[in-house]
Amino acid sequence: MFLSGMDLIACLTTGKGTWGHVNRLITEKEWDTIFLVTNEFGRENFTPSKKSNFVIVDPRRGMEELRDDIKDQLNGHIKGTEAAVNLVSGTGKEHMAVISAILKLGYGVRFVAVTKDGVKEV
């Protein structure tokens, strides 16, 4: 399947039940590297089921600052030419910053989610 051997970048901040979704996403697929875009609360309170890298952001910052914070923390760490991205958790502002950071780094995105049939591209 195309998702094998890809890095996963998932937003992990707000939204009822979204942390469970992200944890299933981490668990149900083999990812090269897992990046979780979150805040200090997420880093302190979420225990990923597999080795993961936290990309820490301050949601009070402006859109461009958020984007740059994410971009700086991902720069040089994504393998390949595209990444699997999940935005089930988080706000629209965070989602835009994640997508913009990835695209500004020159990578493509494949949006993924956990479905009744497992992890799928959506």
Give a quick rundown of the structure.
The protein is of the alpha/beta class.
What is the strand arrangement across the widest sheet? Answer: 3-2-1-4-5-6
CATH architecture: 3-Layer(aba) Sandwich
Overall mean confidence score, pLDDT: 94
Low-confidence stretches: none
Instruction: Assign the structural class, choosing from mainly alpha, mainly beta, alpha/beta, alpha+beta, or little secondary structure.
Output: alpha/beta
Rg measurement, Å: 13 Å
Give the helix/strand layout.
Layout (H helix, E strand, L loop, with lengths): L6 E5 L6 H10 L6 E5 L1 H6 L7 E4 L6 H12 L7 E5 L5 H13 L3 E8 L2 E4 L1
Parallel strand pairs: 1-2, 1-4, 2-3, 4-5
Antiparallel strand pairs: 5-6
Provide a descriptive summary of the structure in words.
With 122 residues, the protein is α/β, with parallel strands linked by helices. It has one domain (7-121): Hypothetical protein VC1899 like domain (Restriction endonuclease-like) (Rossmann fold), CATH 3.40.50. 34% of the residues lie in helices and 25% in strands. Helix 1 (18-27) links the parallel strand 1 (7-11) and strand 2 (34-38). The longest helix is centred in the last third of the chain and has 13 residues, at 92-104.
Defining key terms:
single chain, alpha/beta, Rossmann fold, six-stranded mixed β-sheet
